[in-house]
Amino acid sequence: MVELVDRLATQHSLSDVELRELLKVALSDSTVLQLLRDNAVRTAREQFGLGIYIRGLIELSSYCRCDCLYCGLRRSNRSAERYRLTHDEVMECCKEGYRLGFRTFVLQGGEDGTHTDKWLTELVSAMRREYPDVAITLSLGERGEDSFQRLYEAGANRYLLRHEAANEALYESLHPAGRGLRHRLDCLESLKRIGYQTGMGMMIGVKGQTIDHIVEDLQLIARMRPEMVGIGPFLPHRATPLGDEPAGDLRMVLATVAIVRLMLPKALIPSTTALASLSPTGRLEGILSGANVVMPNLSPSDIRAKYAIYENKASWGKEAAEGLSALEAELQTIGYHIDYARGDFNL
Ligand code: 5AD
Q1: Residue 265 CA, ligand 1 centroid: distance in Å
Q2: Which tops the pLDDT comparison, 301 or 345?
Q3: Which of 132, 137, 292, 300 could form a disulfide with 106 if both were Cys (CB 3.0 to 4.6 A apart)?
């Protein structure tokens, strides 16, 4: 195992069989997991020092045409409260975020049919005009290549679109009404071609997922070399078909994050909200597995509860933008600090 971790750290790749072995052993042997995490942390520090980038998350809309089995915003969830922010509300969030020191805004939302190219490009253009020095990240699901292109020309720089599952059968079982894995990967290819810094990723521990599936995810990530990779535990939401399933395993999330860091030393990897929601120490444990980004919530506080992709989502305290000083204090306990730079991917 020592040799495997060493080779992953120096050559940034392993075979399927080796990855599978490493994940399996890391799950049961805490010294191997620690070795993996220590290597990932060293690699992240070589790239980013002790600074953690922050991204202000603005949750645009809880309306969604998709019906993903795991997600509380799925269209079949009749009990979900729906909202959408207006143009002016989003600009208000940006104003507050900019004042607080954010230099990346992430517009995230369900696939809301009212978010036409016209509405979105007007919003992105306005943000670009008002804040020429910020990075604008979109996380709005699958759209056509022409739409991605228009939004890029309006001023967006980055796009997050988790691939969710590299295995076709698993992908289909989780998204029975979706457009399929091929379409999702085509979207990712389009985004890269257009010039977006592109993010992919998946949940750990979602129903039906095996270690072999995670190996497939890791090898897909290694092949596609995205600039950003988001990984968090599955967390059950009562009003979904997966409401009675157990949450993802913390150690498996940490091992997977560490492996991605070693595969892609320069990638921007968030310590996700889901990880912070799974465990009180999740946020720091993610960083101590090689993550280098956190994404505090900039959404208006009265709508946060309604953006419930899973239950008990962390959005107060250190998750909330107003909690930046609390976040700084938390990072200090492990010797890290907030890095207020835009934090683009650097080759
Ligand atoms: N638990 C954890 N993560 C979830 N996501 C959606 N639903 C859940 C859940 N129940 C993740 C998906 C999606 C991202 C925005 O949130 O991977 O891409």
Answers
A1: 24
A2: 345
A3: 137
Looking at beta carbons, which pairs linking 8-14 to residues 24 or more positions away fall under 8 Å?
8/39, 8/259, 8/262, 8/263, 9/39, 9/42, 9/43, 9/262, 12/222, 12/262, 12/263, 12/264, 12/265, 13/222, 13/263
pLDDT tens for each residue of 52-93 = 999 999 999 999 999 999 999 999 999 999 999 999 999 999
> What residue spans of 49-160 are helical by DSSP H?
87-100, 117-130, 145-154
Q: Is the pLDDT of residue 319 over 80?
A: no
Give the closest residue (by CA) to ligand 1 atom 11.
203
Instruction: Check pocket membership of 309 for ligand 1, CB cut-off 6 A.
Output: yes
Query: How far is the C-alpha of 160 from the C-alpha of 163, rounded, in Å?
Result: 9
Per-chain mean pLDDT for the chain: 96
CB-based contact 4:253 (threshold 8 Å): no
SS3 assignment, position 335: coil
User: Percentage of residues in the chain with pLDDT exceeding 70?
Assistant: 98
Ligand 1, atom 6: nearest CA belongs to which residue?
71
Residue nearest to atom 16 of ligand 1 (CA): 309
Confidence at residue 322, expressed as pLDDT on a 0 to 100 scale = 67
- Mind listing the pLDDT tens digit for each residue in 108-146? 999 999 999 999 999 999 999 999 999 999 999 999 999
Ligand 1 contact via 53 beta carbon (within 6 Å): no
Which CATH number fits the domain 2-339, given the four candidates 1.10.443.10, 3.40.50.2300, 3.20.20.70, 3.40.50.300? 3.20.20.70
**Is 70 close to ligand 1, i.e. is its CB under 6 Å away?**
yes
Nearest CA to ligand 1 atom 7: 71
Ligand 1 within 6 A of CB of 164: yes
For residue 80, report the distance from its CA to the centre of ligand 1, in Å. Answer: 15
Predicted confidence band of residue 311 (pLDDT cuts 50, 70, 90):
confident
